[in-house]
Specification:
- This protein is mainly beta and 129 residues long.
- Helix content is 0%, strand content 47%.
- The strands form two sheets. An eight-stranded antiparallel β-barrel has the order 1-4-5-6-7-8-9-10. Strands 2-3-11 form a three-stranded mixed sheet, with no helix packed on it.
């Protein structure tokens, strides 16, 4: 999928993603879906002014944001999940404004405001065990 972002000397505004929720998109041969794995939630990222919360399906963590940078291509958040782990960087690049797609750390996510534009599929329990 080709990126549609080509701003003219304008920085992306952090307000585009603050207080938003993003869901990881699974690409198949024919369509993009939100795939619910066995007894796990979809990889989800929630962005707040001072923190980012990420749910990996069965585990989650919160990163406190130390610094926000933005330019015409991306918005970056730098912070630490806790005292022991190194700093982590989240980069958000708008992929397709029309369908709400974003690249977050080079993975495709969809904004919760556009979630009705994508199908959801739950893995049948019979395939889980």
């Amino acid at each position: 999928m080709k990126s549609e972002v080509k701003n003219t000397n304008k920085k992306l505004n952090e307000n585009l993603i603050l207080n938003r929720t993003f869901y990881r998109v699974t690409k198949t041969d024919s369509i993009d879906i939100l795939y619910h794995y066995c007894n796990a939630s979809i990889n989800t990222i929630k962005v707040f002014k001072d923190s980012i919360w990420e749910d990996f399906g069965q585990e989650d963590y919160t990163m406190l944001v130390n610094k926000i940078n933005s330019n015409e291509e991306q918005i970056s958040f730098l912070g630490k999940p806790n005292q022991v782990t190194p700093e982590k960087l989240y980069t958000f690049k708008l992929n397709n404004k029309a369908n709400g797609y974003w690249y977050i750390n080079n993975k495709v996510f969809i904004d919760s405001l556009s979630i009705d534009k994508i199908k959801q599929y739950k893995e049948p329990d019979s395939e889980c065990f």
